[in-house]
Design a protein that fits this description.
Blueprint (H helix, E strand, L loop, with lengths): L5 E5 L4 E5 L5 E5 H6 L4 H8 L12 E6 L3 E6 L7 E3 H7 L1
Antiparallel strand pairs: 1-2, 2-3, 4-5, 5-6
Bound molecules: zinc ion (ZN).
The site of zinc ion (ZN) has 7 residues, from helix 2.
Length: 92
């Protein structure tokens, strides 16, 4: 699997940028990440037909590397989602 060579968190612009070893960069908005949270709780909401909505002004406050991806902590306190690199690549 491809791993990014660099992960940049821009709280001002509210985007996350992943740079891959081939030089490609992906940029994903913080709200989009929150709304696509892959944790069991958010997945269950989406399966039930609900939409996971990011609060206005929501930001990513912390990132924890998990090897195959990363755990993303949001300003609304939600921190259950572990985002595999392949999932992030699909979102961008
Ligand atoms: Zn979630």
């Amino acid at each position: 699997m491809k791993w990014p060579s660099e992960v940049r968190l821009d709280r001002g612009a509210r985007v996350l940028t992943l740079r891959w070893p081939d030089g490609n960069e992906l940029t994903i908005g913080h709200a989009q990440l929150r709304e696509a949270c892959p944790c069991a709780e958010c997945r269950r909401l989406r399966l039930g037909g609900d939409v996971v909505r990011a609060a206005q002004g929501l930001t990513v406050t912390d990132l924890q590397s998990m090897g195959y991806g990363m755990q993303i902590v949001f300003s609304d306190g939600h921190a259950r989602g572990i985002y595999p690199w392949t999932y992030l690549a699909q979102l961008a």
